[in-house]
Amino acid sequence: MAEITQLIHQYLRHNKKFPLVFCPGCGHGIVLGSLVRSVHALGLPKDDVVIVAGIGCSGRIAAYVDFNTVHTTHGRALTVATGIKMANPKLTVIAVMGDGDAFSIGGNHLIHAARRNIGVTALVLNNFIYGMTGGQCSSTTPEGAYSHTCPQGQLESAFDIVELTRAAGAAGVSRGTVYHVKELDALLAEAISRPGFNLVEALTPCFTQYGRGNGFKSAVEMFKWLKASCLPVERYEKLEDRTGKLPIGTFVRRDVAGLETRWANMRQALAAKKGGAA
Amino acid sequence: MGRNRVVVYPDWCKGCGICAAFCPKKVFAVGQDGKARVVNEEACVNCGFCEPHCPDFAVLVIPGETDQTPCPPETAPDPAEQPAAKEVKP
Amino acid sequence: MTAPRKKRREAFLLGNEAVVEGALAAGCTFYAGYPITPSTEIMECMAKRLPHVPDGAFIQMEDEIASMGAVIGASLAGRKAMTATSGPGFSLMQEQIGYAAMTETPLVLVNVMRGGASTGLPTSPGQGDVQQARWGAHGDHPIIVLSAADVPECVEMTVTAFNFAEKYRSPVILLLDEITAHTREKIELPEPGDFEVFSRLTPTMPPEWYKPYEETMRGVPPMPPIGSGYRFHVTGLTHDPLGFPTSRPEEVRALTERQFRKIDRFFEDIQIVEHVETADAEVVVIAYGCVARSARLAVKQAREAGVRAGLLVLKTLYPFPRRHVEPLLRNCRLAVVPELNMGQLSREVKRVNEGYTTVRTINRIDGQIITPSQILKEIA
């Protein structure tokens, strides 16, 4: 077991200040660990991995890991990731975003990245709230939940991230939680290795900004809630009563080539045609 | 059993209590200083929960000697087997 | 230009198409964009050409914000990358221009200026984005803004834009206007070796010694492509020499001062102007873009009418070519600044004039060009 922690230490930037900047009980550190383990399990060299992060708590993850890391502007991580992947398809590009990043300000980029199936893995840390700015509702805040910008309860409904990304055409869509860590490791590894655009939604509780205002007594309670309400999608589908339950696992597996591969193939075909004609 | 060593780095621990709450053998407790500490190291069965679930990489489990009896397969509990959830937020 | 003397390929090109020729001559291999009038021909031409360029990549993004994002990403991955836009698209790009300036990411952005604010006059010329090009992104940041007045200049200034971007690790904005972009002229196509082409310096030290934002002699730290073994952090937050976020006053100041200094130190190299009979001029016209063409004729006609007129064509707009403008203002009795806006570059001229001479502006904002006779009337 000790190797788990030792492994993480191998991938951390030790010139950074620790502990992590996140609040006590924040799941972001667990996702960071999961990311490191899945990259390690796939045997990817550090030099070939690019983490592109947006703005928000999730964006802070990038600075801690010893990969090539780019901390971009709010919501634009996928656009920069697209540029990097098109420019150098050999790199493994992982865009780390929060829910506000990916689905509010960056919603347009997300659906288009999914539609064009650029070979990027989108890891979305969904905590149902804007954490860094102090607890405002996001596009994934559940209806009826409280936040500083919906103190009377959220009137809008939340995005179903899985259905949204599925409809946009992504090659892979999955959901995990920071309670189900081993499953999250596997989901991430699967997503990183599948060609095309793959999205992994990681449910990670924010006690400080979301839990406290919504009836949770501690971060631990939020983990207990994840444990109690999330179940594998195969089992979820057999349920009679699905109220209050959330499926986790892989929802979409499509066999498509990434845009960067289609572009390379097109260029090759053009060159062959030109060579044939000459 | 009882040969496993469990260590908490106090400098990195923020005392969220996840290890203490979920450890099946109650190895951890959150102390007065707001940090997790190891209170029952002998009980550790190296189930594999605490290390990946510590958000701050502050828990280290060093497994005992190899001649030790293998740990019972007490992996992360199956969520579906759990009693019905209380009111669920999102 | 050192021209190899054999039969040169000629073409009858739009200014927009000439930009593409210039970009490819400068080594551009990546284009990301979003169609918008009157810049679209640049994108269309790139879509045709880039698949045939070694390592070329082209992508149509979902909007201008995304286009700039992709260009920044490609540049970080080691490519010479560009985008082009107009009007509202330029406004959308401002956030990412600031990011490129802060992270010192080389890129070229061609903005074909159209008339008016908002949707304005999409198919008419304007020069209303001059101040926005300099100050559009929030916060203090250095930037290089160039312009071109005719089709051959579109080639030349695009190459220059790439060279400056690479030399100074800075976003470079090339301002064209609808007239320049949509004028078709015969030009000689650039051949390899026509232009001196620069590429960014890459680090030679071992990766563990590399500091991505280190103070260097030139103020421009070397920049490795992502994936080359130099792993570092890029962030839009103010950062220390290692690239990690910092808010320590001394580090913040050092960063911003170096970013400005790397441009300030090379004013001589960056500030490009063309003098037309200014040596003895008592009336000086200061112009850029399509207006400079009208001014050229007006000055010629004024000379014929016996007025000692001269013309200063600005090819670099920012950093403002003060050392060329200032001496002229000290020695003339009248300076005329014709522009297709309410007076944007004339502000800079008035700023460096400091009351020495009379500065008169000619402003036209009705989507029509400023004619030579309009300028002649003011100077003769």
UniProtKB/TrEMBL annotation, chain A:
Q: Which InterPro entries match?
A: 2-oxoacid:Fd_oxidoreductase (IPR051457), THDP-binding (IPR029061), TPP_enzyme_TPP-bd (IPR011766)
Name of the protein: 2-oxoacid:ferredoxin oxidoreductase, beta subunit
Domain spans labelled Thiamine pyrophosphate enzyme TPP-binding: 55-201
The keyword Phosphoprotein belongs to this UniProt entry's keyword annotation = no
Do the record's keywords include RNA-binding? no
Q: Which top-rank group of organisms is this from?
A: Bacteria
Which SUPFAM superfamilies does this chain map to? Thiamin diphosphate-binding fold (THDP-binding) (SSF52518)
Can you provide one Gene Ontology molecular function annotated for this UniProt record?
thiamine pyrophosphate binding
Q: Name one GO biological process term.
A: small molecule metabolic process
Matches recorded under Pfam families: TPP_enzyme_C
Keyword vocabulary terms for this entry? Oxidoreductase
UniProtKB/TrEMBL annotation, chain B:
A family per Pfam: Fer4_10
Region: Disordered, residue numbers: 68-90
Query: Which controlled-vocabulary keywords does the entry list?
Result: 4Fe-4S, Iron, Iron-sulfur, Metal-binding
Q: Which domain of life is it from?
A: Bacteria
Q: Where is the 4Fe-4S ferredoxin-type domain?
A: 4-33, 35-64
Q: Name a GO molecular-function annotation.
A: 4 iron, 4 sulfur cluster binding
Quote the protein name from its UniProt record.
Answer: Dissimilatory sulfite reductase (Desulfoviridin), alpha/beta subunit
TrEMBL record, chain C:
Q: Which GO terms describe its biological process?
A: response to oxidative stress
**What InterPro entries does the database record attribute to this sequence?**
PFOR_II, Pyruvate:ferred/Flavod_OxRd, Pyrv_Fd/Flavodoxin_OxRdtase_N, THDP-binding, Transketo_C/PFOR_II
For the Pyruvate:ferredoxin oxidoreductase core domain, which residue ranges apply? 281-375
Domain Pyruvate flavodoxin/ferredoxin oxidoreductase pyrimidine binding span(s) in chain numbering: 21-252
Gene Ontology molecular-function annotations: oxidoreductase activity
One short Pfam name that applies is POR_N
Keywords of the record, alphabetical order, are: Oxidoreductase
What domain of life does the UniProt record list for this protein's source?
Bacteria
Q: What NCBIfam families has UniProt attached to this entry? A: PRK08659.1
Q: What is this protein called?
A: 2-oxoacid:ferredoxin oxidoreductase, alpha subunit
Originating species: Solidesulfovibrio magneticus str. Maddingley MBC34
Q: What is the lineage of its organism?
A: Bacteria, Pseudomonadati, Thermodesulfobacteriota, Desulfovibrionia, Desulfovibrionales
